Amino acid sequence: SNANKAALSTLNIGKIPEEAIGIRQNKYLNNLIEQDHRNIKRRIRSMLGFKSFRRAQTLLAGIEIVAMLRKGQYIQPKDKALSPAAMFYYLVA
C-alpha cells in the first residue's frame, strides 16, 4: 500500500542503498504460509483442542522442530551431524 511505501521511504532517508530497506512482494505468500502450517493443523485436529497453554506450546514446538529438521532448516555443526531423529531427541531432552 502507499502507507507502507511512505514509511519505508522515510526510514531509508540518509541510508546508502546497501543498507536501505526494500519492498519484497510475493503475491502468493499467504498460500505458502498456510501450506507450511497444514501439517500442524492435520496433527492437532484429532485432539480437538488443548487442556493447557503449556501443553500446546510444548507440542507445537516439537512439531515445528521436526518440520525444520525434515526441511534442513536447522543447521548443525559438520563434526557433530546427527540424524533427524537423534537431533529431535537431543533437542527435546
Give an overview in words.
It is built from 4 helices and no strands. By secondary structure, the protein is mostly helical. It has 2 domains: 1-49, no CATH class; 50-93. It is extended. The model has no long low-confidence stretch (mean pLDDT 79).
Number of strands: 0
SSE class: mainly alpha
Stretches where pLDDT falls below 50 for ≥5 residues? none
Average pLDDT level: 79
**What is the radius of gyration?**
20 Å
How much beta, percentage-wise? under 5%
Order of helices and strands: HHHH
Largest sheet: none
Span of the ends, CA to CA: 46 Å
Residues in helices, as a percent range: 55-70%
Domain module count: 2
Q: Helix segment count?
A: 4
Overall geometric form:
extended
Element layout with pairings:
Blueprint: H1 2-11, H2 29-45, H3 53-71, H4 84-92
Q: What's the short version?
A:
By secondary structure, the protein is mostly helical. The chain contains four helices and no strands. Helix 3 (53-71) packs antiparallel against helix 4 (84-92).
